[in-house]
Specification:
Layout lengths: L8 H14 L8 H10 L7 H12 L7 H10 L5 H8 L6 H7 L11 E9 L2 E8 L5 H14 L4 E3 L5 E8 L29 H17 L1 H11 L1 H5 L3 E10 L6 E4 L53 E9 L6 H19 L5 E5 L8 E7 L11 H17 L1 H21 L4 H12 L9 E5 L5 E7 L14 H10 L4 H24 L3 H16 L5 H10 L6 H14 L15
Antiparallel strand pairs: 1-2, 3-9, 4-7, 4-8, 5-6, 5-7, 9-11, 10-11
């Protein structure tokens, strides 16, 4: 992209060379850049003070800038416009009407800070990723992990097919009586209508198989009803991809599958092509472990009547919601198909709703290969750090305690970016942890190994039920801006960024654990929060935080430091309370 002509071409080329050496993005051209130059001068005719301020800002590390300075950098890079900058800087909360109508029993608003994970390179593209979190060190760790990944060529990522599962359930258990049976007067008078339930497990299993066969014969009807329930999503190229009928529990286990891939499409994608996995299958079963549902300990799961569940027939609908997260779309389609299926089977549906359990084919993947010397700390060599990271990863595969915390660290980054975008963090968390436990044992979502080249190789697989349109994000101005800053043109690209963010967040956390320990950096950044909790305000926050760096970092110490600062201050130096506030 072209830049305006500069009077000093040699200086311009030198500045760009410095940026390349630092691996920082060259400022983009366009109307935003011209606007910046009108305000700050072009180096020849502008204000000398403004030019010096601009140069200092360009030369400073992003985290050392003020919030206004960081916004200015993002505007210079073409990430946001001047209007975006004003909207972000002036945002004080949701409009009262918006807040009142988003949830029930609304009494106020709850604010969290938004930050930026800088320069995350994914598939050769640089992203500035907005995140929202209350936890110190998350943004710093993710940015540090992104820096390491970028020094090693960036992260390679791939999204699976974006589809959501809806399930329609019919109950045929012995304890359900005839509550699920539609009376003949309601339009069904088939034989055996009352055999499911009161006749016992055997007949219930037979009835479940009959219901499954009925659903199977209505393949075309299922598609017709699904498409009619949400024609707009079909118009965008989405809609029903396939369905599957299963019998859960009962005496007649069976599964009926009818894949219906849309023309020119498939319901899933291959995994990462040419994936290097020296450590074996990622997220496989834990060796030497015993994973059995709680309950009967004297038999295999479900081989006796005392621990066999109720009999159910499940009709699963696999739906493409395009760039939406898909919850409302899938629920609408499920309820329409359920109503039709009740007429075909003579049974009321127990439930019809989406599942937050994402199909394995839809999981996103990301991988990075790291040269050990880029991991070195002041006290540890890169080779030692790399070896310890691989050992920590191996530990997570055999120790659930470590696996849970390992995955929590991954979600630190992912959930923060999901929240910033206005997506459903609970859906993403639930899907991720279900995926981690899909073998029957809770496993780490990522794995790190030393490969044959002596480099540290890491890979993550994680389902990400998100969207870039619809949902609450349309009513949340900051979510709209976050998606603009992130630059996610499609849901698949957003999933690639999220998976990569989780991987580099995990890398930074494991590097800290393998080296100086997690608390050294975390508590240094936590000092600001302690200062504010102690009651520090304005310049007091920085003073208390600075003194805390050499003291025990706890709330009592912060309170003592603040009292000393206020006790030694002359009356005229006291911080003025905010209007309406108290000291």
């Amino acid at each position: 992209m072209c830049r305006q002509e500069q009077p000093d071409n040699q200086a311009q080329h030198g500045e760009q060379a410095v940026r390349r050496e630092r691996r920082e993005p060259v400022f983009r051209g366009g109307s935003e850049e011209r606007e910046v130059r009108e305000v700050h001068g072009d180096g020849e005719t502008g204000s000398g003070c403004a030019v010096r301020e601009l140069r200092e800002m360009r030369g400073s590390k992003f985290y050392r800038l003020s919030p206004q300075g960081r916004l200015q950098v993002l505007m210079q890079e073409g990430v946001i416009t001047a209007e975006d900058m004003q909207e972000i800087a002036g945002f004080t909360g949701l409009d009262a009407d918006a807040a009142r109508n988003l949830i029930e029993n609304q009494i106020g608003q709850f604010a969290l800070p938004m930050g930026i994970v800088r320069n995350l390179e994914v598939n050769g593209k640089i992203y500035q990723v907005p995140v929202v979190t209350e936890e110190p060190s998350v943004v710093a760790a993710a940015s540090n992990g992104a820096r390491i990944a970028r020094a090693n060529g960036g992260v390679a990522a791939q999204a699976g097919s974006h589809c959501v599962t809806g399930e329609i359930i019919f109950s045929c258990g012995s304890s359900s009586g005839d509550a699920g049976v539609i009376d003949a007067g309601e339009g069904y008078a088939g034989s055996g209508a009352n055999s499911c339930g009161a006749a016992g497990d055997a007949r219930g299993g037979i009835e479940a198989a009959r219901i499954a066969r009925i659903l199977e014969t209505h393949s075309d009807d299922i598609r017709t009803v699904a498409n009619a329930a949400h024609p707009s999503i079909v118009g965008y190229g989405g809609g029903l991809l396939s369905y599957k009928v299963e019998i859960l529990g009962g005496d007649v286990p069976a599964a009926y599958s009818s894949p219906m891939p849309k023309e020119g499409e498939s319901a899933g994608r291959e995994g990462l092509a040419g994936r290097e996995d020296p450590g074996g299958s990622l997220n496989g079963s834990r060796p030497g472990s015993s994973c059995r549902p709680s309950g009967c300990n004297s038999c295999k799961p479900y081989d006796c009547s005392s621990c066999r569940p109720e009999g159910f027939v499940k009709l699963s609908l696999i739906i493409d919601p395009c760039d939406a997260m898909g919850a409302n779309i899938v629920n609408t389609i499920c309820e329409a198909v359920a109503a039709a299926a009740e007429g075909w089977t003579g049974y009321r549906a127990l439930t019809a709703i989406l599942s937050n359990n994402v199909p394995a084919a839809s999981a996103a993947s990301a991988r990075v290969e790291v040269q050990p010397h880029t991991l070195a700390t002041r006290s540890c060599s890169g080779e030692l750090i790399a070896r310890r990271i691989a050992e920590l990863s191996a530990l997570a595969r055999i120790d659930t305690d470590r696996a849970v915390t390992h995955n929590k660290g991954i979600m630190n980054g992912i959930s923060s970016a999901v929240l910033a975008s206005g997506n459903d963090t609970r859906a993403v968390e639930a899907g991720a942890h279900a995926f981690a436990a899909r073998t029957g044992c809770y496993m780490p979502l990522s794995e790190w190994v030393l490969n044959s080249r002596g480099n540290l190789y890491g890979e993550i697989r994680i389902p990400l039920q998100v969207g870039i349109i619809g949902g609450a994000s349309g009513a949340l101005p900051m979510a709209r801006l976050a998606k603009k800053i992130g630059g996610y043109p499609s849901v698949q690209e957003f999933q690639c960024v999220l998976a990569s963010l989780g991987l580099v967040q995990n890398l930074a956390a494991l590097r800290a654990l393998a080296g100086p320990g997690i608390q050294q950096g975390h508590m240094a950044l936590h000092a600001n929060a302690l200062a504010m909790a102690a009651g520090a305000r304005g310049s007091e926050i920085e003073q208390v935080s600075r003194i805390l760096q050499g003291r025990d970092k706890n709330l009592e110490t912060a309170v003592e430091i603040l009292a000393d600062i206020r006790g030694s201050r002359r009356p005229e130096e006291s911080e003025e309370p905010e209007e309406g506030g108290i000291r």
